[in-house]
Amino acid sequence: MWTMSHEPASPIHAFWEGARGKLGFGAAGSVVGLNSHELTPPPAWAFGGEGTTDLANELLALVLAGTKTGTATSGWEFDGEDEPLPKPGDLSIILDGAGEPRAIIKTTNVEVVPFAEVTAEFAYSEGEGELTLESWRRGHRAFWDEHLPEGRTFTEEMPVVCETFELVYPRR
């Protein structure tokens, strides 16, 4: 996953402003007493790693179609980072391959398990390939062989953050 910083008046802020009322947070100019999390856009990121524009677009399309309701991240991506692990209730703005905001998801569950213990049910939730655990393992191993943080090497014991989510905007 890759993230993008967002400045006030950015496309991400404009997207959040348009979505916020539809998510029950109200419009900033007409509601008094909003919490800061209701005014500040949630983290914005795209599926895949840096330079995976086509993959980001493919996975976003699966989310928008309702096929993809899960995503896996190497647990090592959170080592020493200021970015905390996702938790149920977290919102994320999903970007397309060009960095444009396209959707908002809400995390429903998070588990950290070794790669070898990822379940078939979770693999299916990713909505990719053949929707089997075997296909998930092949695809994710190939991805992580190329995209793990520097100094890390894929192993069957590698921690995997298995996050499930629901699409909350735009609603299907």
Keywords:
23% strand, globular, 172 residues
Structural overview:
The protein has 172 residues and is α+β, with helices and mostly antiparallel strands. Helix content is 28%, strand content 23%. It contains five helices and six strands; from the N terminus they run E-H-H-E-H-E-E-E-H-H-E. It has helices spanning 11-20, 36-39, 53-65, 120-125, 133-147; strands spanning 2-3, 44-46, 70-74, 91-95, 101-114, 159-169. A six-stranded mixed sheet has the order 1-2-4-5-6-3. The longest helix is centred in the C-terminal third of the chain and has 15 residues, at 133-147. It is globular, with a radius of gyration of 16 Å.
Question: Gist?
Answer:
The chain has 172 residues and is α+β, with helices and mostly antiparallel strands. The chain has helices spanning 11-20, 36-39, 53-65, 120-125, 133-147; strands at residues 2-3, 44-46, 70-74, 91-95, 101-114, 159-169. The chain is globular, with a radius of gyration of 16 Å.
